[in-house]
């Protein structure tokens, strides 16, 4: 993430801010947004199984497995996202509830029992960085609105 941000000339930002407390506190605190990613280590066989399950669930835009390349060696990106509320979206993607579009990580049999890493990077241009990451290393899963 840091490498792609640097290549795109997107600066990292410290999540800090202050505000004057008011009865509504509406739009009083502006913090920088973040980009996050979920990653998983997979063998070649597991890589194929996870890809096949995403195809079966119709929860990927990738048309062939060669598009889903590792970040390094055997670590694959499951999902890239952006978050203007620092952490709220990340927790939603773990569940399979009726709500807005989610990666729904718990709904994949091939990922159950696997250790999944999540990294977030607070940056000045989170929308641009998310797009750059998706272009450089496409993730497997898309956010779907239906329960899987």
Q: What is the strand tally?
A: 3
The average pLDDT is 90
Q: What coarse outline follows from CA principal-axis ratios?
A: globular
Please give the largest β-sheet.
3 strands, antiparallel
The neighbouring-strand order within the major sheet is 2-1-3
Give the quaternary arrangement of the chains: single chain
Spell out the helices and strands N to C.
Answer: HEHEHEH
Separate helix tally: 4
Description:
The chain is an alpha+beta fold and 148 residues long. Helix content is 24%, strand content 16%. The chain has 4 helices and 3 strands. The longest helix has 14 residues. The two termini are 29 Å apart.
Descriptive key words:
148 residues; alpha+beta; 3-stranded antiparallel sheet; 4 helices; 3 strands; 24% helix
Strand-helix topology:
Blueprint: H1 2-7, E1 34-41, H2 44-57, E2 75-83, H3 88-92, E3 116-122, H4 126-136
Antiparallel strand pairs: 1-2, 1-3
Summarize the structure.
The chain is 24% helix and 16% strand. The protein has 148 residues and is α+β, with helices and mostly antiparallel strands. The chain has a domain at 2-14 and 39-85 and 114-136.
